[in-house]
Amino acid sequence: MQPSILTVLATYKCTAACKECCFECSPQVQGRIPLDRILGYIEEACDTVPTLRLVVFSGGECFLLGKDLDAAVACASRRGKLTRTVTNGYWAHSPEAARKRIGALKEAGLGELNISTGDDHQEFVPFERVVNGAIAGAELGLTTLIVVEGFENSRFTIYDALAHPRLKSFRETHPNGHLLQIMRNIWMPFHQERELRHTDEIYRKPERIPLLGGCDNVLHNMVVTPDEHLASCCGLTMEHIPEMKLGKLGEHSIAELVSRGLDDFLKRWIWLDGPDAVLWFARQKDPRVPYPEKNVHPCEACAQFYLNPLAREAVRDHWREIADDVLLRYELKVRMLARRDPADGGRAAAQPSADPAASRVGHG
Ligand code: SF4
Ligand code: SF4
After folding, report:
1. pTM surpassing 0.85?
2. 60 lines ligand 2 (CB under 6 A)
């Protein structure tokens, strides 16, 4: 198995400062990766990871990179990779401005546009800009996705987006209407005082959402963070889990860091069964490990495992009991996926070009 996605988080600076932003991005955050090093990481990943298919630019707000974003998209596109930008749409202050900005990126080779919105985002970016950007993207032939923050007590919902007159008309009448999709994303609370309710209707509760199941991101997504580490997933809690960072770029090659991730038993287990299974195993071995009942997102369980010394100790003391089972099933899954798609030698189920919601690092 080898990674299929490279995500470039060149900066955590953003034009917005959403309350529940997983990376606490804001206009006050400083620093970014210089263009020459962004291009270097893309080239190196293309040279050394033959299964790489998709390069995603997110953040922070990747459109703050200006023309450097176009250059980075062009670099990935020249190397034959699919490309995607994830943005809040602040730049689309009119239909003309949106067409001009997206036109330049399309020229550079951009294939997909992903725009986030919802209650928190709209404190900073009016929804009309999202509409301008999304219509411009689809008009120009980009696969375009609007992602709406999802929680029960949100004021702005996916139904408001679906009913928006310009979006509705474009989707129903324009020849490229099918390229513009709208979906809801689980908006995960990062602040304890904030109540974001999630219900049966949205997430098929009652008691516990069926979060069990392998993580499609870990080991598939090589994430270049603004401090120029390579991380092994695009999880919302990735910055809170030191183990998700594989090492410093520049000091180690991408190939070396990728293989460090692939050799990690825990990451293989999370890919196979998901973090809830790991947390549940830890609790069987030590009942003092709490098993949370109100999680709404698999990445929460990941942080709850990695950040709990009791859970880590329980797995460290007992992992050998299940190692053969996990590694056997891991190999079987890799082979099954390789048989399904021989070209990539065992890449997991995520199909970047068919799944515009995959790898939405940043922006919730
Ligand atoms: S579940 Fe864990 S490994 Fe998977 S994306 Fe979330 S934080 Fe990363
Ligand atoms: S969620 Fe997205 S738009 Fe909001 S602050 Fe974070 S990166 Fe910016």
Report:
1. yes
2. yes
